[in-house]
């Protein structure tokens, strides 16, 4: 592999494999709520069920994979990091409807075109050359298939600083090359590839660092800014839905 960015991602995966959930803001009560909401939104928006054929990109430690598996769908979960894949395999080993393997989201050469009814991912596009990844996904989706992703919002002040100041990026546990997306720019990229019914929506004002003791009091009120014009533009995340 001669792509330094991909080498950096593999190296980063090896480094954080034993404590990845903490780095990704998925530990603690706020992390649990954010995790549940993301996967539930994808399952509900995509109508994922036992007849679905799902490809999960950037499965990491398999946390989302395990929740997807509970739908009964046929799940293929991939990640570029062999070390994260080892963790994921242990987490989902009880599910017969899941296959976990090391693969490159930008290529997907091991899969036939038109294979999947759904391609999903949580915080993965911003680790890749997203245009290449979107093009690969388009080829592998069946006609009418759905793309469902959650990604960090570059318009959020903390995320903007974290992704653009190298020392802060390192201190926050990011990989060297990861970035984030502006909503309109990402929608334009999807449309340029050929996706239709493109939707990139703001969501998530629940910060993963909130103490467990106060999360239950503020998680519901923090849904309100998601529907307030202008204010919603600085949400923490973007929910992406598009159709082939």
Task: Give a structural overview.
Helix content is 39%, strand content 20%. The protein is an alpha/beta fold and 244 residues long. It has one domain (4-243): Rossmann fold. It is globular and about 45 Å long. The two termini are 30 Å apart.
Question: How would you concisely characterize the structure shown here?
Answer:
The protein is α/β, with parallel strands linked by helices and 244 residues long. The protein contains 10 helices and 7 strands.
Secondary-structure map with pairings?
Layout lengths: L3 H13 L3 H4 L4 H19 L6 E5 L5 H7 L4 E6 L2 H10 L6 E5 L13 E7 L7 H11 E12 L4 H8 L1 H6 L11 H11 L2 E8 L8 H7 L18 E7 L1
Parallel strand pairs: 1-2, 1-4, 2-3, 4-5
Antiparallel strand pairs: 5-7, 6-7
Number of contiguous helices: 10
User: First CA to last CA: what distance?
Assistant: 30 Å
Q: Helices and strands: which structural class?
A: alpha/beta
Fourth-level CATH superfamily: Vaccinia Virus protein VP39
CATH topology: Rossmann fold
Question: Characteristics of this structure?
Answer:
39% helix; Rossmann fold; 244 residues; globular; alpha/beta; 10 helices; single chain; seven-stranded mixed sheet
